[in-house]
Amino acid sequence: MAMPKMTPRALLSEKLASGVLRDDPGQQLVAEKLDRLHSEIVSRRKGLWHRMTGKSAPIRGLYIHGGVGRGKTMLMDMFFATLPQHNASATGWRLHFHDFMVLAQDLIHQARARNEADPIAAAAAQLAAKGDVLCFDEMEVRDIADAMIVARLFTSIFDAGITVVATSNRHPDDLYKDGLHRDRFMPFIALLKQHCEILAIPDGADWRASVLADMPAWYSSADKSADTALKTAFEALRGGSAAGAESLRVAGRDVVISQCAGDIALVDFSEICEVPLAARDYLAIAGRFAGIIIRGVPRFSDRNEAAARRFMWLVDALYDRSRFLIASAETEIDDLYDGHHFAFEFSRTASRLGEMTRRGKLLQTDT
User: For a Cys staple, 277 with which of 206, 258, 281, 290, CB 3.0–4.6 Å?
Assistant: First the structure.
C-alpha cells in the first residue's frame, strides 16, 4: 500500500501558505474532522481484517452540509486526493451524487434484464466494489425514482462496509422535502444519521463570491490573452480540487467534460455546443456544475444556427439554476447573434447573459 503524502488538513495548510486560499475557521473545523476520518481509514487498512479481505473494517463517515461557497466540495476533494492507494488501484471513489444515482439506475435495469432475484442489491454490490470509501458531491434527491430506491440501495452499500463522505446544501432532515411518498424515503435519512456524522460547516465568507467579485465574466475577444485569463479564473475558482475529465451519464449515454475540478468546468465552445447535445443534457450540466468557463464563443449567424440553439439551451439551464458563466467570445453580448431563425429567442438569451455577467446574478450560485 502506498501511503498518502499528506492529510487533508496539511493540504489545506499548503494552499493557505501559497496564498491560493484564505484562512477560514469553518473550513479548518471540517478539515480537522476529515483528518480524523482519514487517519482512521489508514489505520484500519493496516489491520488484520483488511489484509484478509482487502477491505477496511466499517468506519462511520461524514456528511458535511452548509451554505453556498463555503468550500465543502473543495475540502472533500482534499480528503479524496490524500486517500492512500492499494494494489495500484483507487481505494475510494468520488463523483457527483446525481451521476451516482444515474449509474445506479442503469445497473438496476441491467440486473433486472439478467433476472436477478434482487436487482437493487445486485447493483449495490457492483457499486460497493468500486472502493471502500465513496465521496459524494452535492447530495440531493429530486427524482421520485431515486427516492424510492435509495434506502434499499444504501442499506446494501453500508452493509458492505463502505464509508461515505458527502457534501450537501441541506441537513439530512431536509432532503427530498415535500417530495411525493416521502415516507418511503425516510429510512434513507435514518441510514445517513446512523452511518455518518452530520457536520454543519459554520457560516462564514463565501470564498467563491470573493474570487468572482474581482473577476470579469465576459471577454469580448477570443485571443491568447483571454484564454490566459480564463485559465487563471479556473485555477482560482477550483481551490484545492484536482482537475481532470469527467463523463456525465444522461439518458443512457455519456456527456464528456474535458476539464473540470470540483464543481467548476473549463470547456471549449466547440466541445459543448458543436456536438449533438439536447436540452436535457444542458440541464444535467447545470445540475452538476456551479459554474462554467467557456472559451471561444463565436458570432452566430444563419451558418451556425444549430450551435446557437444549443448555446441558448445552455444559457437557459445555467440561468434557471442560478449558475455562473465566464466566457471569451468574438464580440460583445449584444452583437453575438446576426442570424434570422432565432432572432427573437436570442434576444432573451442576450438579456440573460447580461444579467449573469453582472455581479448580482453571477454570485448567486446555490451549490
Answer: 281
Can you name the CATH fold of 8-200? Rossmann fold (3.40.50)
Per-residue b or e along 330-357, where b marks 16 or more CB atoms closer than 10 Å to that residue's CB? bbebeebbebeebeeebeebbebbeebb
Burial of 63 from C-beta contacts in 10 A (0-12 / 13-18 / 19+): buried
Element (H, E) at 361: helix 359-362
d(C-alpha 289, C-alpha 305), whole Å: 26
- Please tell me the CATH code under which domain 207-362 is placed: 3.40.50
pLDDT score recorded for residue 51? 53
State how far the Cα of 143 lies from the Cα of 86, in Å rounded to an integer: 35
Q: Are domains 8-200 and 207-362 of this chain identical in fold?
A: yes
Over residues 101-160, the pLDDT tens digits come to 988 999 999 999 999 999 999 999 999 988 889 999 889 898 898 999 999 999 999 999
The string of pLDDT tens digits covering residues 213-238 is 778 899 988 788 899 999 999 988 88
What is the residue extent of each domain of the chain?
A: 8-200, 207-362
Contact in structure between 68 and 366 (CB atoms under 8 Å): yes
Residue 299 has phi, psi (to 5 degrees) of -80, 135
Give backbone dihedrals phi and psi of 359, rounded to 5 degrees, phi first.
-55, -40
